[in-house]
């Protein structure tokens, strides 16, 4: 199959929306997530807990062993999996809580991007990485130190890799995408946090009450349209609400 997309966290939320939209548009979809889901029976699935970063290389090696570089025209990695982490001020967070969230949100994408670029180095096709970031990368929220820090790191990763790849013959194009406020488990977690732990909780409750949340399908379709239109150019940090 000519067009391939690898998605982390493809079993639910925005990841499931992306898996569905790309599959409907003729892509071979490969999902990497902690859980498998029956609704994705037509999609290839690999179970991997991205917080256990030592397991990622084996999974990516296995995936690439089943891909054919000669028949591939488009190869895309979407780093979608993420975790809001424990919502509380930094002094209330335990070292294991800090470690878990940074592993999932930042270390795992670094490893995935490294392996994706290494394994596709000799592939003569269109190669892309989409990092699903967040406005939290540039807007500090009290009690979100883990999420804000890791997303800011994700954006800087995008900028650095884009410079590296621009110098290479047939390099990988990489972008960061802010998907806006999406109706996922992450939003549910935010608005169910006690105000004592999260001062901005009412803002997130209001988003939900006023119908300001996008569905995962809406966001996935917008990302797909930006992809095929050529808007996702190397090095861009893009808020889809501004497109």
Question: How would you describe this protein?
Answer:
The protein is of the alpha/beta class. It has helices at 13-24, 56-65, 95-119, 145-166, 185-191, 201-209, 216-229, and strands at residues 3-8, 28-33, 44-47, 74-79, 126-132, 173-178, 237-239. A seven-stranded parallel sheet has the order 3-2-1-4-5-6-7, sandwiched between helices. α1 packs across α7 (216-229), α2 packs parallel to α3 and α3 packs parallel to α4. The longest helix is centred in the middle third of the chain and has 25 residues, at 95-119. The protein is globular, with a radius of gyration of 17 Å. The chain starts with a strand and ends with a strand. The model has no long low-confidence stretch (mean pLDDT 94).
Secondary structure layout:
Elements: E1 3-8, H1 13-24, E2 28-33, E3 44-47, H2 56-65, E4 74-79, H3 95-119, E5 126-132, H4 145-166, E6 173-178, H5 185-191, H6 201-209, H7 216-229, E7 237-239
Parallel strand pairs: 1-2, 1-4, 2-3, 4-5, 5-6, 6-7
Helix pairs in contact: 1-7, 2-3, 3-4
